[in-house]
Design a protein that fits this description.
single chain; 394 residues; alpha/beta; Aspartate Aminotransferase, domain 2; Aspartate Aminotransferase, domain 1; 2 domains; seven-stranded mixed β-sheet
Length: 394
Amino acid sequence: MIYLDNNATTRVAPEVVAAMQPYLTEFYGNPSSAHSLGRKMKTAVESAREQVAKLLVAADASEIVFTSCGSESDNWAIRGVLEENPGKKHIVTTLVEHEAVRNLCARLEGQGYEVTWLEVDGKGELDLESLRAALRPDTALVSVMLANNETGVLFPVDEIGRIVRANSSALFHVDGVQAVGKIPINLSELQVDLFAISGHKLHAPQGVGALYVKSGVKLAPFIIGGSQESGRRGGTSAVPNIVALGAACELAASPEGHELVRRLRDLLEDEILSHIPNASLNGTPDRTKRLPNTSNISFEYVEGENILAHLNEAGISVSTGSACHSTTRESSPTLRAMNVPYTAAQGSIRFSLGRYNSEQDVEETLRVLPGIIEKLVKMSPYDKELRALYAARG
């Protein structure tokens, strides 16, 4: 199998499996227990906290709180800020956020909150002046992703943070789920109050995440229970998964493999856009403003679900967009916000590479894909438009 869907989830790294294995078998105590086995588990949790903090360049490991996933981290950040600031009823976010943020903010609108939805341009980029203009005295929170999960477009969170600080008293939450492990992050240099990550996006198992809470930021607990996580999140710590997240962060800190992923993505993208007439890129063509592993390409007048099915039969795994809305037939909200035409948006495929992909994977995909598109073109009801496209490209 050729796996090109790493933005949906990643293979658990062998180094990560090895790190967590003893905590699935030999070491099974509760880290809240006072006996020696419990203390050993507590030490493992704190060691993992240090590893996560080091990757994010947090000022202190105590700023890292473990959660079950990125969606919990996002939900906690938003709801926690609102609970701490009951007099502020305004939120600023974007139309292209992950469902964990976008759907929550839509629900909050029905509960009396006002949400300003920032638009993006055709390249998927934000207008920072519209952000500045949206800030108000009653703005409780600005919530913006670092990297779009579908297009890979990066938002300038350093500049956004400075704008938020200079023009409001709002807190700044960043959904960093798709970015961690793919690009360098230095939270000590950013004006970010809350930063969400998810383990399964960087070769840890599903079911573990973390929320960076900057020192001094007050955040109401999301899960009420015992005194775990210094009273910030109740519930027994999932020690094996927490250890795994720490190991994954340590692995991600190594530069090995990162440049290969970028090179393979560039090769795949260039060849597709050069040789398939109805292919077009979704997102800015400036690769410095996109994740180095992600390429979202539309094949106009062809159904993405059909492309996915044919690639799957050939042993190649891709996505038509976010895994969180892959069961619907609607166009991607991200592509709609970018004003990508329906005939192109419906034919979008997200290729997302990872550290275990090879040049052979890309070569095989490039060998198989043109024939699939040509076959589907012949079946398309838009045959006249497609014949014109193919004729124009020779």
